[in-house]
């Protein structure tokens, strides 16, 4: 599996109003790219444009893979809401993609994934019996099990406490190594920790910000990470 | 608690009834008093139970068939948008035909026995079940379907794994409605032509000026309808709660 690059160019509109652009966003194949930006800037819309689920948002331009082949079938999307199906237990929620494609991965695989996300032994529970942070981890597990070369994550760790967040970030970084990841986040520290590249979407434009020099996932308290966090925070404050 | 909540309205209704009989000085063959009806209820209990069983059978069979057919129709319509566009107006139009006007024809087609009553019940509940379920199928909560498409699900599998389970509450609310309508269908069928059932008994009693028996049959019918509604309601609630727990 070689992970293709992602490229989105053009202008996005919603209801005739320009949401962002004209811009040119590129994520190199196999890299983890973090996308920051104020609320309402169009980050989620951008992910949906790449996933082909944009609905009311239209793109005058193109959203495609760098290798020219269609993105459909190569993308996994973790949306901003968890979209768990309340009538399925956690294992079946995680495996819903396979079911929708008419295959059936083992329950053991799903259980193992839950285990690695700190949800050991909860596979038979229904989503209604979970906390917000637990639901978010199940949604992440579902996205990881899709096993796609391109992964779009919309605020995947936002509901987690600090310790869990760091652990789950590490787990995701390892699980998705070598894939092309576009990761939307509100948290500058998260972007400083995880991004091979960091982009800022503000005022309808994309701007690249230099990540710390070492390879992610970086120590959250390393000087380079902290100074990148500070720099990103300042940029976000200026953009607001 | 429930008993108390029921007790007061029932007592009020009985008091009004008795008051009307006393004040208006109604002869028993026009409006019998509650005690007299209670007496008939007791003395004719075997007869009433007999006919109630027939009506109940018709109602349950009609309910099962109507729910099943409604389920299949709604899913079929949801599977093919073309068919839905074509058939939906037809369904609505069929509802504009007063169904009870069809009762004599149904008796002609399905005979004097239980068949025509089941058909009548089915006809009355088919539309509420179909349209409640179909509407729910066509309005899945945003996000799920998009997610399923990104995952590569075919329309049929998305329907089966996402849209149908998501629309189950809609189907169940159609079923609750159907439980109220179903006895009406059965009794209508019996009025047009039958030799058994509560509807038949009411007509018979009325014809022979046995108004107390007619009222007794009416009461049994009302209790049957309420019990059915309650049972279906409870069943639906339990099902909904269990599948989310
Ligand atoms: N279906 C829609 N109809 C109308 N407007 C929409 C629609 N979807 C998004 N928008 C608008 O587009 C803008 C961008 O929305 P989007 O969800 O992409 O923002 P975001 O950057 O992800 O914000 P947040 O950080 O709060 O999640 C918002 O102003 C929103 O109101
Ligand atoms: Mg968003």
Automatic annotation (TrEMBL), chain A:
InterPro entries: AAA+_ATPase, ABC_SmlMolc_Importer, ABC_transporter-like_ATP-bd, ABC_transporter-like_CS, P-loop_NTPase
SMART domains hit by this protein: AAA
One MF annotation (Gene Ontology) recorded for this entry: ATP binding
One Pfam family, short name: ABC_tran
Coiled-coil annotated spans: none
ABC transporter domain residues: 1-228
PROSITE patterns: ABC_TRANSPORTER_1, ABC_TRANSPORTER_2
Assigned keywords, A-Z: ATP-binding, Nucleotide-binding, Transport
Alphabetized PANTHER family for the sequence: SPERMIDINE/PUTRESCINE IMPORT ATP-BINDING PROTEIN POTA, SPERMIDINE_PUTRESCINE IMPORT ATP-BINDING PROTEIN POTA
Name of the protein in its database record: Putative hydroxymethylpyrimidine transport system ATP-binding protein
TrEMBL record, chain B:
Principal subcellular localisation of the protein: membrane
Gene Ontology biological-process entries: transmembrane transport
Keyword annotations from UniProtKB, A to Z: Cell membrane, Membrane, Transmembrane, Transmembrane helix, Transport
UniProt lineage: Bacteria, Pseudomonadati, Pseudomonadota, Alphaproteobacteria, Rhodobacterales
Membrane topology, record value: Multi-pass membrane protein
Organism: Salipiger marinus
Gene Ontology cellular component list: plasma membrane
Membrane-spanning parts: 59-79, 91-112, 118-137, 158-175, 213-232
Top-level division of the source organism's lineage: Bacteria
Name of the molecule in the record: Putative hydroxymethylpyrimidine transport system permease protein
Gene3D superfamilies registered for this protein in UniProt: MetI-like (1.10.3720.10)
Boundaries of every ABC transmembrane type-1 domain copy: 48-232
Family: Belongs to the binding-protein-dependent transport system permease family.
Localization per record: Cell membrane
Pfam family, one: BPD_transp_1
């Amino acid at each position: 599996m070689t992970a293709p690059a992602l490229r989105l160019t053009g202008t996005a509109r919603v209801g005739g109003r320009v949401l962002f652009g004209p811009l040119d966003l590129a994520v190199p194949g196999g890299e983890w790219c973090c996308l920051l930006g104020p609320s309402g800037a169009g980050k989620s819309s951008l992910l949906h444009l790449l996933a082909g689920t944009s609905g009311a948002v239209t793109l005058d331009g193109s959203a495609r893979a760098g290798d020219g082949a269609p993105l459909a079938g190569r993308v996994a999307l973790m949306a901003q809401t968890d979209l768990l199906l309340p009538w399925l237990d956690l294992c079946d929620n995680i495996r819903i993609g396979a079911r929708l494609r008419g295959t059936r991965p083992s329950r053991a695989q799903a259980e193992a994934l839950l285990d690695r996300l700190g949800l050991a032994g909860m596979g038979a529970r229904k989503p209604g019996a979970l906390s917000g942070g637990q639901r978010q981890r199940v949604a992440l597990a579902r996205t990881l099990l899709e096993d796609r070369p391109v992964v779009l994550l919309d605020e995947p760790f936002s509901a987690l406490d600090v310790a869990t967040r760091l652990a789950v970030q590490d787990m995701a970084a390892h699980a998705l190594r070598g894939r092309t990841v576009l990761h939307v986040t509100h948290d500058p520290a998260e972007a400083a920790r995880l991004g091979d590249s960091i982009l800022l979407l503000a005022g309808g434009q994309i701007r690249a910000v230099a990540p710390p020099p070492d390879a992610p996932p970086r120590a959250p308290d390393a000087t380079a990470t902290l100074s990148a966090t500070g720099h990103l925070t300042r940029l976000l404050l200026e953009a607001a | 608690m429930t008993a108390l909540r029921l007790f007061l309205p029932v007592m009020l209704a009985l008091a009004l009834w008795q008051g009307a009989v006393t004040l208006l000085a109604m002869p028993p063959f026009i409006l019998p008093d509650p005690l007299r009806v209670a007496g008939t209820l007791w003395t004719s209990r075997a007869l009433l139970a007999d006919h109630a069983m027939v009506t109940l059978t018709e109602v349950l069979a009609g309910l099962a068939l109507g729910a099943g057919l409604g389920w299949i129709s709604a899913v079929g319509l949801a599977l093919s948008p073309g068919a839905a566009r074509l058939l939906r107006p037809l369904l609505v139009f069929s509802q504009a035909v007063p169904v009870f006007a069809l009762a004599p024809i149904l008796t002609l087609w399905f005979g004097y026995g239980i068949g025509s009553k089941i058909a009548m019940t089915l006809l009355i509940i088919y539309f509420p079940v179909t349209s409640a379920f179909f509407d729910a199928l066509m309005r899945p909560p945003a996000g799920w379907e998009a997610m399923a498409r990104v995952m590569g699900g075919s329309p049929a599998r998305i329907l089966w794994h996402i849209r149908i389970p998501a629309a189950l509450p809609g189907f169940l609310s159609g079923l609750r409605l159907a439980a109220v309508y179903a006895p009406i269908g059965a009794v209508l069928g019996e009025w047009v032509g039958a030799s058994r059932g509560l509807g038949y008994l009411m007509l018979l009693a009325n014809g022979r000026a046995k108004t107390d028996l007619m009222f007794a049959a009416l009461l049994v019918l009302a209790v049957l309808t309420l019990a059915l509604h309650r049972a279906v309601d409870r069943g639906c609630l339990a099902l909904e709660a269990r599948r989310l727990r």
